[in-house]
Amino acid sequence: MALECYPTYERIPHEGIFSWFNRLRSQHFDLMDFGLSMKLQANSLITDQSLITMAKQRAYSGKQIADATRITAQTVANARQAINIKRRESRAAFDYGVAYGQGYNPCDQTAFRQALAVRQVDMDAARAEAVTQEVLAGPGNYRSPVKARRELLDMNRKFCTQDQVDAGFCDTVGGFPGAAVDVATLFESSGNDDPVNEAKKGVINNMVGLPDNVVPKGAQKSAATDAYVLAKARKDALTSPAINSLKAIELEHSGSAGTETGEAKSVAAMFEEEVKRYSGNSPEHQKWSAMLRGQNEHGLMIELLRAQGFKLAIMLREYQQKERMEAMLAALVANEAQSNGTEEVTKANAGRTNSQRRQADIE
User: Fold this and answer.
1) Could you tell me the residue range of the domain that residue 132 belongs to?
2) Is residue 56 part of a domain?
3) Residue 61, number of CB atoms within 10 A of its CB
4) Is residue 94 part of a domain?
5) What is the pLDDT of residues 147-202, one digit of tens each?
6) 303 within 8 A of 292, measured Cβ to Cβ
7) Among 138, 293, 304, 344, who pairs with 132 as Cys (CB 3.0-4.6 Å)?
8) Which residues neighbour 190 within 8 Å (Cβ) at sequence distance 6 or greater?
9) Range with the largest mean pLDDT of 113-117, 319-323, 346-350
10) Is residue 34 part of a domain?
11) Does residue 85 form part of some domain?
12) What is the pTM of this model?
């Protein structure tokens, strides 16, 4: 078999070409690698910035969402709180408001009841002083009967009747003829500055009479003076229940100054006003009845308590009246025992008993 030789090339020229090509290829690879590296680096920066921006945007969006959620929740909570407050206010207005839950005219009623209570206390305190200061023959008073008679006559002339004018006792008929001698005057309700109040004092002074004369100077330590003072003290003690009751009636039907209601009504007039409200047949009762139809349970309960409180006040008033009646009955019994000789018989029996005891001791 014959051998075939392939054609050969010159090594030196081709080696240089390949060497140059390899260098060129390496340069291209380096350039391509550098360019790719630069692009990757640039893209990496852009990507990092994008990721950072996206993270910030997400964080900001999350904060906005959280703020929006918080604000929404707070708004809902405030709305619910406002609704609850409004509901409670509405309930409180219905349960405790003036229109539905406080009974009849609560402001005026509170002031009226306070004024009534204060007036009764003041009246009781003033009665003790009035018994001795305004009654000429009051307990413990020693005065000249002549001067007292003149004062009483001058007071009676202010209330002269036509018959007294005709008799020459006075010149003109008084503004309230006969008021100073008519016991009905005591039961007439009057204001603080009403002239009838002086007539009421006149009725009591005309009933009680003139005072006892003063003890002469220099005779205070005599036996007759001691007997006179003791007799007067007994008489004053027996008549004081009646005088006290008369002054109680007068003060109860007379007004006084310094009221909280702005009107100097008497205690009797204030009680009468309350009685008319609850008993009927008055404009005040019609207003009160109309008010009850619009009240809730709380308002009706308050009005019931007011009515019960007024009932207790009436019971206290009756109790005080019965106490004065009891004192007058006791005074009548004591006076009867003195007038029918029971005391003298008792003293005589006591004297005989003491004599018998002394005689027995001697024996």
Assistant:
1) 106-355
2) no
3) 10
4) no
5) 999 999 999 889 999 998 988 888 889 888 999 999 999 998 888 778 888 999 99
6) yes
7) 138
8) 196, 197, 200, 253, 254, 255, 266
9) 319-323
10) no
11) no
12) 0.67
